[in-house]
Specification:
alpha/beta, Beta-carbonic Anhydrase, Chain A, 5-stranded mixed sheet, about 40% helix, globular, binds zinc ion
Length: about 180
């Protein structure tokens, strides 16, 4: 597949197909979106939010989550705010997310089948990595969105004037539902 992509890439560049995407690194809408890597969202997410190339910093991982206060998602947001002028952040989880129902026991089975030994897992655990929770699904999507929004909002390195709001996007229709703080 990658070789086919490389082949396509040559004609993309040769035909100057990039010209309609020309922009710079600063997000015109001063917006960052933290979302899931799900393939259903690849085009649907920017289309449903009305975002074109150059509008927003889009940060993606499995689930659209902040897992810990100094993980790669937070690092990217800090770069987006301080280096690139982002003023508003949307956390956008989605319906039927694959990362919702993950369980470590399933990963364990598959890892064993692919040659990862329990000794290796033990060494990783001894290094302080809680594999079971690291690879466990978040189960309840609204609660997970609230948690990620809260971690960003209360982060000591995120300025208080940055707006942070949480949403769940419908993976089929693209409809956004805002997830507000629990009353
Ligand atoms: Zn997902």
């Amino acid at each position: 597949m990658i070789d086919q992509i490389l082949e396509y890439n040559k004609s993309f560049v040769a035909q100057r197909s990039y010209e309609k995407y020309l922009t710079d690194k600063y997000p015109d809408k001063k917006l960052a979106v933290l979302s899931c890597m799900d393939t259903r969202l690849t085009e649907l997410l920017p289309a449903a939010l009305g975002l074109k190339n150059g509008d927003a910093k889009i940060i993606k991982n499995a689930g659209g989550l902040v897992i810990s206060p100094f993980d790669s998602a937070i690092r990217s947001l800090i770069v987006a705010i301080y280096e690139l002028g982002v003023e508003e952040i949307m956390v956008v989880a989605h319906s039927n997310c694959g990362a919702c129902h993950m369980s470590f026991s399933h990963f364990h089975e598959e890892m064993t089948r692919r040659g990862v030994t329990d000794e290796t897992l033990d060494v990783i655990r001894k290094c302080g990595i809680d594999l079971d929770s690291w690879l466990e699904g978040f189960k309840d999507t609204p609660t997970s969105v609230r948690k990620t929004v809260e971690t960003i909002k209360t982060h000591p390195l995120i300025p208080e004037d940055v707006v942070v709001r949480g949403f769940i996007i419908d993976s089929v229709t693209g409809a956004l539902e805002e997830i507000t703080e629990e009353q």
